[in-house]
């Protein structure tokens, strides 16, 4: 009779700075003599091998019962190990997320430029999720969707794990009305408003997404001109789909790449802590009917785009003042 994998119990370790402990299952396919042998094989040939060995020696690897495991402890197929990795120091992002709305189920934050939504790669503790969890003491907070690190504006989180699926389905089923604003070059020959449709593909590990000419469209964006000042345009962008970099790709395809974009039309290599010219893209509006409470919500970002409000300062590379 086929055995089922164990359902993991609650983590025996608390979060640290809003970051959950790592959970690792001891699989049943290959038996090992002990935990030390398993971890050595699991991380063999990776940069995690030596850090994992240090954690084990220091008594910082735990079982579901909260007891520290040692290298010679017996291997337990389907059981789970828990630990916190030693994370490299991160440069604090000098701009904080603002909480615009919070109830027992939903939290809406106004994310600044340069702050990732969730931990990924070199951005772990300096993310909106980790900072809000830690600051508001909401360890179960989880994202309903994501916003690029370089894009500012509205991000939704579920407060309770049992509500997360309902809020995520809003986005998956395109039941959230989203509006963005952008600053980009103004070309009077460009006929607006217009709807842009194309097929966008994003390869994992490749910075830029690409459009596939002639292929079946999978991305659709409405582009409108709000106003212009000489060669500068202020645009409203309404995405009807949610492909990676969709608005940035579509604006670039119109010959109006968004100001401050380090990827389109050409991939650059800005320093990760260079805050002088943020991408001029803002998630301005989210509106929807709450699937849990039934309330009709409409949220609007309080942030501005510096290239439109103070182009001289933005062009001179004067970063916004840090937020308290």
Structure write-up:
With 324 residues, this protein is α+β, with helices and mostly antiparallel strands. It folds into two domains: 62 residues, no CATH class; 218 residues, Pseudouridine synthase, CATH 3.30.2350. The chain has seven helices and 15 strands. Strands 4, 5, 6, 7, 8, 9, 12, 13, 14 and 15 form a ten-stranded mixed β-sheet that branches. A three-stranded antiparallel β-sheet has the order 1-3-2, with no helix packed on it. Helix 1 runs antiparallel to helix 2. The longest helix is centred in the middle third of the chain and has 12 residues. The mean pLDDT is 92.
Give the tags.
3-stranded antiparallel beta sheet; alpha+beta; 2 domains; 324 residues; Pseudouridine synthase; 10-stranded mixed beta sheet
